[in-house]
C-alpha cells in the first residue's frame, strides 16, 4: 500500500487550500500557518468534554470525520505500558490543513487528508504520567503503522456502522512537540444505509444537535525494527454545538417555466432554476450529475411522483457558495394527485399550489431517481433509499390577479315566495398577471369564486359564485384576460347597517365604491392536461353610480282608482322612470309607506324590471284618508305645493334587510293647473256652471261654495245633489247661485266679459265605498258673466 503515500511536492492533485509547505517540518519550533483551521485532540470521552471549550469549530462533514479519527487512532496504536498509553491518548494533536475528495469510486470515496500530527505533553494533567510519557516516547522516537482499517459507529443511533476507512501506512515521530506532516489518500466506504439515512434526516430536519462517534481501528504497528503486532484501538469523539454542521438554507433564483416537446404538441412543463447553498467547509470535490424524483404526499400520506429533476455537475470549492443548475420536468399529472381527498374539498395538488400562491413555505420530498452511467452505483443506492423533505420558499402572489370586476350587472331582489337572497347576473372579468418567466400556453374554460363584498372596509355581504361558470381566456401581452357570464349568483347581506349606508349613498350621495375580495377557482388547460387551481386570492373594486346623478322626477300617468273601502282608496298609475345607472334590477315586490309630516297616510307597492334608461312601471298605492290625509288631499286639490315622504320598513322587500330609505318628494300635479278650471255665471237664471278637472272618475255629492272679487263676496252656491265626474274636464250641471245684493253693480259691469274671482268651497266626494268632505281654495279663477 506504499503507493498511497503522496508527497505534497510530487502529487498533481490540488489540495483543498494551497499553502507553503516545508518537507522538513520536524523541529519543535515548526508552527502551522493555518491558524484558522482546527485541531483535533484525541482523548477519552472525559478529556474531550473537559477540553471542548478550547476546540475550534469542526470544519468537515461526518464522512471525513471517519478519516480523521482513523489517522489519529493509527498514530498512537502501539503497545506501551498503561501509563505511556494514557500519556499518548491525552497528548495527541492532529491539525487538518487540507481535506478534499479525490474521486468517487465504485465502492465509496477516495479522500485526501493533509495535516500536522504531534504530541503535546502540556495536555496531560497528571505530572507523573506526563514525565514518564515524555521519557518513553523520547526513547521510542518513531512509530510506524501498516495499512489500517477503521470502522466508525454511532452509539446514539443503535451503534449503527456509519462507514469504514482504509488507511495507508503512516510513520510519525512521537517525541514531544515534534511536528509530522501527514499527506495520505484513504478509501471510505459507506456503512449501513439505513443508519446513514436516519442521520441525514435528522441533519435535514435540524435535529442533529450533537454526534458521538466511536472509532475502532485494527492497526499493525512497529517501532524501529521491533514489530509490535496488530493492535485494536477504540476511541470516542463527541461533536456538539458549533462543531456540528447545520443544514444550509438554499437560495433558489431565476425560476423559469416553459413547455417542452414538439411545438404545438407539448409533452409537459419544464422548470429551470439556479440553487445556491453556502459552503462553510474547507472541502473541494466535484459531484457528478444527479437525478431525483420530486414527490408530493397523497391523500393517504404516501408519496406521488410529481416531477423528475436533474442537477448539473457541481464543483465545490473551499468556503465558496455552491451553485447548481436544476431542471425539473413535469409530465401528465397522475389522477390521484388531482383527485379530491375523502372528507375534504381539496386535492393534494390543490394543497401544494394553494400554499405556494399564499406565500407560505411549501414542502416537497426529494428521492434519488435514475442516474447516468458516470454516477457510482452506491451513490444511486443511497439516494434511492433516502427520502428527505425540501422546503420551497413561499412566493406571495398578491398581484397575481390585477383586477376582479363586474360589468353589465343585473340585480334581482328576492322573490317573496321562492327566495331569501337577492341575485346578481353579470360579466365577471378577471385580469391575471402571468409572471414574465412563465413561457407557457394557458387556457381557462371554467371559473368559480367565493367573494366577500366590502363597503368602506366593512363587510357588506357574500357573493356566492360557487357554481362553475363557463369562461374564456385571451392573452394580452403578459396578462391573461378571463371573462365569464354569471347568472343569478346569490348575494347574502351580512350587515344590515352597512347595506343601509350603501343604499343611502346610492340614493342621496355620490355613489358607492364596493371592494370585492374573492377566492377564485380556475379550471385550466395546460401542457400538463386539465386541472383546477383553487383558492387564488383576488381583489377588485366596483363603483355603482348614484341614482341621483342624472335623476329626473318620475312622471305619473293614467291614474285610476281600482278599489275602495270605507276608509281607503287603492290607486294605480303608470310611472315613467329614467334609470341613470348602468345597472338593471328585478323587483318581484317592494312596499313602502307614505307619510305626511309624522303621520302615515298609506302604502305604495310595485313589481318591476328596471333597466338602464327609460322605464315604464305600474305602481299602486293605498290612501288611508283620516284627518291628516283629508287635510293634505284638500291642499293637493287646491294646488298647494305638497310633498310626500316615502319610507322603507321591515319587509319592504320580503326576505331582505330594511334599506332604511327615507326621502321626501314633491307631489306630481295630477289635477292639472287647477281643479276648478273656469266658471260661467248666468245672471237671469242666477245659476253657474263649473269646469272641473279630475284624473279619475268620482261623484260630487255636495257643494257649499262662495265666490269673491277683490275680497268682496259675489255669491254663494249650496248644492246637495250628486253628479258624476269622469277623468278629464267636466261641465257641471247649472248650480243655483245666491247673489250678494251689493255685488250687482260689479256683475252688471262685467256682462259679456269675465271677472277674476277667488273661491272657497267645502265639497263632498264619493269614490266607490269611500266618501269624504274636503275643502277647496282657488285664486284668480276666470268667471264668464252671461245673461
UniProtKB/TrEMBL annotation:
InterPro entries per the UniProt record, alphabetical:
Ig_Tag1-like_4th, Ig_Tag1-like_5th, Tag1, Tag1_C
User: Is Plastid tagged as a keyword?
Assistant: no
Which segments carry the region annotation Disordered? 1-46
> Any idea which UniProt keywords this protein has?
Membrane, Transmembrane, Transmembrane helix
Indicate the transmembrane segments per the record: 61-84
Q: Where is the Tag1-like fourth Ig-like domain?
A: 552-661
Q: Which intervals hold domain Tag1-like fifth Ig-like? A: 673-775
- GO CC annotation terms, alphabetical: fungal-type vacuole membrane
For whether the record's keyword set contains Lipid biosynthesis, the answer is: no
Identify the domain of life. Eukaryota
Which Pfam families does the UniProt record give? Answer: LEA-2_1, LEA-2_4, LEA-2L_5, Tag1_C
Could you tell me which residue ranges the Tag1 C-terminal domain spans?
A: 438-545
User: What name has this protein been given in UniProt?
Assistant: Pre-rRNA processing protein
Provenance organism: Capronia coronata CBS 617.96
Amino acid at each position: 500500500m506504499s503507493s498511497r503515500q503522496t508527497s505534497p511536492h510530487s502529487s498533481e492533485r490540488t489540495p483543498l487550500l494551497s499553502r507553503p509547505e516545508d518537507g522538513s517540518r520536524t523541529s519543535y519550533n515548526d508552527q502551522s500557518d493555518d491558524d484558522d483551521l482546527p485541531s483535533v485532540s484525541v482523548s477519552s470521552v472525559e478529556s474531550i468534554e473537559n477540553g471542548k471549550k478550547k476546540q475550534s469549530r469542526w470544519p468537515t462533514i461526518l464522512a471525513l470525520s471517519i478519516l480523521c479519527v482513523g489517522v489519529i487512532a493509527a498514530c498512537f496504536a502501539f503497545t506501551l505500558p498503561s501509563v505511556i498509553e494514557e500519556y499518548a491518548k491525552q497528548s495527541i494533536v492532529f491539525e487538518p490543513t487540507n481535506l478534499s475528495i479525490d474521486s468517487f469510486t465504485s465502492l465509496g470515496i477516495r479522500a485526501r487528508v493533509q495535516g500536522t500530527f504531534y504530541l503535546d505533553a502540556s495536555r496531560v494533567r497528571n505530572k507523573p504520567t506526563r514525565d514518564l510519557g515524555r521519557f518513553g516516547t523520547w526513547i521510542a522516537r518513531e512509530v510506524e503503522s501498516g495499512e489500517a482499517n477503521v470502522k466508525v459507529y454511532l452509539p446514539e443511533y443503535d451503534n449503527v456502522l456509519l462507514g469504514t476507512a482504509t488507511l495507508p501506512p503512516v510513520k510519525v515521530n512521537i517525541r514531544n512537540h515534534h511536528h509530522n506532516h501527514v499527506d495520505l489518500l484513504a478509501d471510505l466506504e459507506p456503512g449501513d444505509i439505513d443508519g446513514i439515512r436516519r442521520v441525514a434526516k435528522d441533519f435535514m430536519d435540524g435535529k442533529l444537535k450533537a454526534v458521538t462517534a466511536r472509532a475502532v481501528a485494527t492497526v499493525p504497528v512497529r517501532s524501529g525494527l521491533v514489530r509490535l503486532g496488530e493492535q485494536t484501538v477504540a476511541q470516542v469523539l463527541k461533536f456538539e454545538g458549533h462543531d456540528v454542521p447545520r443544514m444550509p438554507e438554499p437560495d433558489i433564483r431565476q425560476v423559469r417555466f416553459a413547455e417542452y416537446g414538439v411545438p404545438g404538441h407539448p409533452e409537459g412543463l419544464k422548470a429551470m432554476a439556479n440553487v445556491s447553498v453556502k459552503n462553510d467547509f474547507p472541502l473541494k470535490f466535484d459531484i457528478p450529475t444527479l437525478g431525483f424524483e420530486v414527490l408530493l404526499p397523497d391523500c393517504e400520506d404516501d408519496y406521488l411522483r410529481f416531477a423528475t429533476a436533474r442537477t448539473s455537475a457541481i464543483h465545490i470549492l473551499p468556503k465558496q457558495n455552491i451553485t447548481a443548475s436544476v431542471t425539473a420536468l413535469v409530465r401528465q399529472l397522475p389522477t390521484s394527485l388531482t383527485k379530491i381527498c375523502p372528507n375534504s374539498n381539496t386535492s393534494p395538488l390543490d394543497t401544494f399550489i394553494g400554499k405556494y400562491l399564499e406565500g407560505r413555505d411549501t414542502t416537497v420530498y426529494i428521492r434519488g431517481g435514475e442516474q447516468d452511467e458516470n454516477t457510482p452505483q452506491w451513490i444511486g443506492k443511497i439516494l434511492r433509499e433516502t427520502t428527505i423533505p425540501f422546503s420551497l420558499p413561499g412566493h406571495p402572489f398578491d398581484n397575481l390577479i390585477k383586477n376582479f370586476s363586474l360589468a353589465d350587472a343585473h340585480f334581482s331582489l328576492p322573490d317573496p315566495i321562492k327566495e331569501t337572497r337577492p341575485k346578481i347576473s353579470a360579466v365577471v372579468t378577471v385580469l391575471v398577471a402571468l409572471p414574465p418567466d412563465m413561457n407557457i400556453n394557458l387556457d381557462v374554460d371554467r371559473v368559480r369564486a367565493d367573494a366577500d363584498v366590502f363597503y368602506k372596509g366593512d363587510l357588506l355581504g357574500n357573493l356566492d359564485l360557487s357554481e362553475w361558470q363557463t369562461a374564456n381566456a385571451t392573452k394580452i401581452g403578459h396578462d391573461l384576460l378571463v371573462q365569464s357570464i354569471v347568472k343569478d349568483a346569490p348575494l347574502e347581506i351580512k350587515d344590515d347597517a352597512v347595506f343601509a349606508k350603501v343604499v343611502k349613498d346610492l340614493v342621496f350621495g355620490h355613489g358607492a365604491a364596493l371592494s370585492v375580495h374573492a377566492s377564485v377557482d380556475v379550471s385550466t388547460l395546460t401542457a400538463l392536461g386539465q386541472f383546477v387551481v383553487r383558492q387564488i386570492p383576488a381583489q377588485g373594486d366596483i363603483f355603482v353610480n348614484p341614482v341621483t346623478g342624472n335623476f329626473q322626477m318620475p312622471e305619473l300617468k293614467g291614474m285610476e282608482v281600482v278599489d275602495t273601502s270605507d276608509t281607503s282608496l287603492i290607486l294605480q298609475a303608470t310611472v315613467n322612470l329614467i334609470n341613470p345607472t348602468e345597472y338593471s334590477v328585478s323587483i318581484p315586490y317592494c312596499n313602502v309607506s307614505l307619510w305626511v309630516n309624522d303621520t302615515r297616510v298609506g302604502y305604495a307597492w310595485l313589481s318591476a324590471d328596471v333597466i338602464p334608461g327609460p322605464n315604464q312601471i305600474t305602481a299602486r298605492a293605498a290612501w288611508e284618508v283620516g284627518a291628516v290625509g283629508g287635510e293634505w288631499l284638500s291642499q293637493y286639490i287646491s294646488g298647494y305645493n305638497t310633498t310626500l315622504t316615502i319610507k322603507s320598513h321591515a319587509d319592504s322587500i320580503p326576505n331582505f334587510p330594511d334599506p332604511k330609505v327615507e326621502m321626501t318628494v314633491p307631489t306630481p300635479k295630477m289635477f292639472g293647473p287647477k281643479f276648478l278650471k273656469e266658471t260661467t255665471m248666468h245672471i237671469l237664471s242666477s245659476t253657474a256652471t263649473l269646469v272641473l278637472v279630475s284624473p279619475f272618475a268620482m261623484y260630487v255629492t255636495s257643494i257649499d261654495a262662495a265666490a269673491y272679487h277683490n275680497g268682496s263676496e259675489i255669491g254663494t252656491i249650496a248644492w246637495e245633489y250628486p253628479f258624476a265626474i269622469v277623468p278629464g274636464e267636466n261641465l257641471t250641471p247649472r248650480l243655483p247661485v245666491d247673489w250678494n245684493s251689493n255685488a250687482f253693480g260689479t256683475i252688471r259691469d262685467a256682462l259679456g266679459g269675465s271677472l277674476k274671482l277667488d273661491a272657497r268651497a267645502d265639497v263632498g266626494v264619493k269614490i266607490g265605498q269611500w266618501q269624504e268632505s274636503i275643502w277647496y281654495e282657488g285664486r284668480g279663477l276666470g268667471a264668464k258673466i252671461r245673461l
